[in-house]
Amino acid sequence: MKIKRAQKEIPSYDAEAIHNEVKALVGKSIKVEVMISSGKSKTEVGTVTEVYPNLFLMERTYKGVNFKYSYTFIDIFTKRVTIKVID
Fold first, then answer.
1. Is the separation of the CB atoms in 81 and 33 below 8 Å?
2. What is the pLDDT of residues 46-68, one digit of tens each?
3. pTM for this structure?
4. Cα dist. 86→29, 44, 45 in Å?
5. What's the sign of the alpha-carbon dihedral 40, 36, 69, 29?
6. How would you classify residue 23: left for phi > 0, otherwise alpha for psi between -120 and 50, otherwise beta?
7. Within the chain, which residues score under 50 in pLDDT?
8. CB neighbours of 16 closer than 8 A, spacing ≥ 6?
9. Quick one: fold of 9-85?
10. Under 8 Å between Cβ of 71 and 30
């Protein structure tokens, strides 16, 4: 479903579809790129550990310390966060 506003088509936010795609990545290694501001980005590599209704958790280990990051599905929809699966 698309909504027309000001002569532009705005795609509807389908949280369920994004949720299902991320849920399929649980236990897999991923590379997440986060757009911070002004074209700057940060990249993290880790594993999807848990998926909740509005967000998911990624865990990575760096020098023996576990770090957990959380990202929302709206971040994926707005392309602030991109995910790539590492083989």
1. yes
2. 999 999 988 999 999 889 999 99
3. 0.75
4. 5, 12, 9
5. negative
6. alpha
7. 4
8. none
9. SH3 type barrels. (2.30.30)
10. no
Amino acid of residue 71? Y
CB 86 within 8 A of CB 45: yes
What is each CA distance from 58 to 6, 8, 52, in whole angstroms? 38, 35, 12
Q: How far, rounded to the nearest angstrom, does the alpha carbon of residue 27 sit from its chain's CA centroid?
A: 15
**Strand, coil or helix: what is 22?**
helix
Q: What tokens does 3 get?
A: 């909504």
Boundaries of every domain in the chain: 9-85
Expressed in angstroms, the distance from the first to the final Cα of the chain is: 34
Distance between CA atoms of 86 and 50, rounded to whole angstroms?
Answer: 18
* Identity of residue 29: S
